[in-house]
């Protein structure tokens, strides 16, 4: 996946890279500050167990993550190494909190209408997703079986 056009902008995370989620440890060393309770206007969808944002008018909650300016390009490279480019595309979008607004880099769904469903949640939690729980256990069990 390509880098965002402006890596000096903060990153709005609504899924895998939020603090407390599995991806956050991949970017933690690049982080200058994390700010909860930001929103973006869009449509929250899910595809393949992952949240994606499409065009819409619903507030989607997330975190604004500000990177150390000297390491922001490396932070976005780390995000790109994990996120599938068949699913996401970088866009600059307006995010807001408490009447304040600014621009941030956001991972939007690439063709969000294709194969996506409306999730039952408002906030994605990786520990509740079979992709990150049951599937990992099944894979580990399969590997143990193969080595026996």
Q: How would you describe this protein?
A:
By secondary structure, the protein is α+β, with helices and mostly antiparallel strands. The chain has one domain: Hypothetical upf0131 protein ytfp. Helix content is 20%, strand content 39%. The chain contains three helices and five strands; from the N terminus they run βαββαββα. It has helices at 24-27, 72-82, 134-147; strands at residues 11-13, 31-47, 50-67, 88-97, 100-109. The protein has a five-stranded mixed β-barrel with strand order 1-3-2-4-5. A hairpin with a 2-residue loop joins β4 and β5 (100-109). The longest helix has 14 residues, at 134-147. The protein is globular, with a radius of gyration of 16 Å. It starts with 10 loop residues before the first strand and ends with a helix. Residues 132-140 have low confidence and may be disordered.
Task: Give the key terms.
148 residues, alpha+beta, Hypothetical upf0131 protein ytfp, five-stranded mixed beta barrel, 3 helices, 20% helix
Question: What's the arrangement of secondary structure elements?
Answer:
Blueprint lengths: L10 E3 L10 H4 L3 E17 L2 E18 L4 H11 L5 E10 L2 E10 L24 H14 L1
Parallel strand pairs: 1-5
Antiparallel strand pairs: 1-3, 2-3, 2-4, 4-5
Organism: Tautonia plasticadhaerens
Protein name: AIG2-like family protein
Q: In brief, what are we looking at here?
A:
It is built from 3 helices and 5 strands. With 148 residues, the chain is an alpha+beta fold.
């Amino acid at each position: 996946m390509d880098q965002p056009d402006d890596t000096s902008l903060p990153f709005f995370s609504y899924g895998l890279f939020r603090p407390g989620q599995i991806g956050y440890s991949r970017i933690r060393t690049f982080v200058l500050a994390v700010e909860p309770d930001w929103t973006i206007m869009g449509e929250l969808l899910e595809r393949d167990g992952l949240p994606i944002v499409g065009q819409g008018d619903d507030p989607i909650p997330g975190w604004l993550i500000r990177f150390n300016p000297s390491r922001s390009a490396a932070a976005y490279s780390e995000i790109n190494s994990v996120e599938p480019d068949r699913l996401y595309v970088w866009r600059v979008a307006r995010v807001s909190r408490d009447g304040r607004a600014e621009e941030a880099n956001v991972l939007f769904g690439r063709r969000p209408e294709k194969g996506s469903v409306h999730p039952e949640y408002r906030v994605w939690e990786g520990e509740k997703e079979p992709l990150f729980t049951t599937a990992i256990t099944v894979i580990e069990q399969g590997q143990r079986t193969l080595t026996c």
